[in-house]
Amino acid sequence: MAILKAFKGIRPVKEKASLIASRPYDVLNKEEARQEAGDNPLSFLHVIKPEMDLPDDLNPYSNEVYEKGKENFQRMYKQGVFFQDDQDYLYVYAQTMNGKTQYGIVGCAGVEDYMNNVIKKHELTRPDKEEDRMNHVRTSNLNYEPVFFSYSAVPRIDNIVAEVVAGKAEYDFTAEDGVGHHFWVIRDQDKIDAIIEEFDKLPATYVADGHHRTAAAALVGNEKKENNPDHTGKEEYNYFLAVHFPDDQLNIIDYNRVVKDLNGLSKEEFIEKLNKGFVVEKKGSEIYKPDKLHNFSMYLDGEWYSMTAKEDTYDDNDPIGVLDVTILTKEVLDPILDIQDLRRSKRIDFVGGIRGLGELKKRVDSGEMEVAFALYPVSMQQLINIADSGNIMPPKTTWFEPKLRSGLVLHSLED
Hints:
Strand order of the largest sheet: 5-10-7-11-4-3-9-8
Largest sheet: 8 strands, mixed
Helix content: 25-40%
Radius of gyration: 23 Å
Number of strands: 20
Structural class: alpha+beta
Strand content: 15-25%
Number of domains: 2
């Protein structure tokens, strides 16, 4: 059953929260982080992206980088910008985007749950990225950033959260991208106990976003367990920081593809090959967005097309075979365009739907890419079906928005 643990959160003082909170480490490169932090010494990017404060010729995976992140955080803590709660609490972190709010329970997940697959994954991780995040945790002894989890919605938890958020938020601000961030501390022990009790009944929780951070946090905890001859199972390193959102509040948006060339084919030859697996219809110069599962849009040579997959190209009874990313790979990218390794090919790129389909048009019109494909978004139920079946999604399948802000609460691995 799923572990949820209250903890003594390390948090910003109220008046500094909006200055500290930053986008997560993996949505910005070093230069973008520098620009975004600007002249704000309190931006949490100095902690999670500390290479931006170091010379450009320094290896981004060197010990100096991890030590710099630790140094930057300790500076803020000593300045009184951060403090630690004196009791174990749970928290509510809500985000508002485009008029819709989603409410997450902030608490610690169990390392044991990760190792035993009670925490279910749907993506592969890369060892180098895991090791990078592990080094941050090892050096700081902190979970700097929460991971983004989901769980099957529970009415009793929904009701408790509704009671909590009826009170005044601890932090309440709108970030520069227009997303609202709201944060409450659950101090009522009865409410904390009730939420933990409901989590204990859940057969599983699901990694929605942050597979590398999840793996890093859990593996460091497990490493500490194995290196401690006096391990009891109660140590704080047995847990890591997560925000758990009910599945019925989350929204996955599309994750689209752009390709550099047609593999030597003319436009006419390419469309002729597409006709084998799809009903292809020209839609003109106005942006066309897929309107249902197994319908795609394509942008090629200044025109938009609708591509509807033929029935023999997919299997709605197979958690992987039903996915539109599978259809596109199996029917177009691999056999026609000869892109066989989505993770390594330099001829394909991936564009999160948050950028809009206009971004696909722009990249093709510029000549950088030759063709773009827009996909209908994966559903939360599809994600859960895949995770429950032990399968792994193809690369770049899900894009969650809004992203969690980093720096609103940290978890210490020290008792």
